Amino acid sequence: MDSISEKKPTIIIPYSGACREAECSDYFLYLRPETNGVRVESAILRVIESNPDFKSHITLEYLANFPGNFILHNHVIEEHYRVRLHFASHGKAGFTQGMINHFEYYYRVKFAEAKILGAFEALAELEISEEELFNLWVPPYDILISCGQIIKRKDDKFIVNYDIPALLHKNNHKTDIAVMILRTDLSNQAFYKFLDQVKEALMSSMILDPSKPFSRIFHYSKGPFEQLLDAQGYLYNPAFEKIPLEDFSFGCYLQNQGLSPSRMLEILDNPIFRFPTAKGELEENIIEATQGFTYGEALNKLRTAVGQVFLK
Hints:
The chain has helices at 37-50, 52-55, 68-73, 76-80, 82-90, 97-107, 119-126, 130-134, 164-169, 188-204, 224-234, 249-256, 261-269, 286-289, 295-303; strands at residues 10-13, 25-31, 58-66, 115-118, 143-146, 149-154, 157-160, 177-184, 218-220, 272-277, 280-285, 307-308. The protein has a domain at 81-168. The chain is globular and about 55 Å long. It contains 15 helices and twelve strands. α1 (37-50) packs across α10 (188-204). The two termini are 36 Å apart.
């Protein structure tokens, strides 16, 4: 047997189970492959311990290390980014009607006449590497985020999800990812204050280069549905079995409110919904649209949808 395929995640602190308190949230934090996981974990825990408000309201409920070969073998990254990967692969052909409308309104360009490239097509067209595409600078006004997809205009070309090739390329059998869950009853605003202090601690410890964005080394769940997506990819028990979504805090909440586990999966696979507006309907990605929401607010947002866009 290939020794690379034999490595399993190290579950250092097993998941404690779903939180059933009304104001409780489970945030995933995980560290990018190029990060020194032990140093970052230590910095995060020091921030918690040094502040009484954080110490009494934030607890570590899960800690695991995922070997790069396990991530590759189980296609964890591809699965996590599957919706964005879909659009990066399909390019112009993948656009929904709502995205077409948004594109034409923002860029003042006819969709049919625009040269729109998926990220992988752009690599060949521009003859550049994944990292060069990732670092391709354009003015902020040339970037559009539509239904969770990033469109970047470079000269006469529009590139869809330019960052996906680099995100996939960075992961190999030597690159581990450290994953933790922090449980808190703090408001989103207070939790983001905690994250700001973590960022400051990482910079003062010379772990984070101030010239690089926080997101290059550090991911955190920005809303309930993103928590659910993170749980789908990174929540395992000590027997190396995936923990069902309904046993994760937000999944448990959704099931108690009448959503089945199969419906949760359907939402993660097809997260673009149509919502009513004063002028008709607007397509939004439920994962992006509920960033900063409580569990109840996120479910209420979902319930206002009048339709769902199923990706082909």
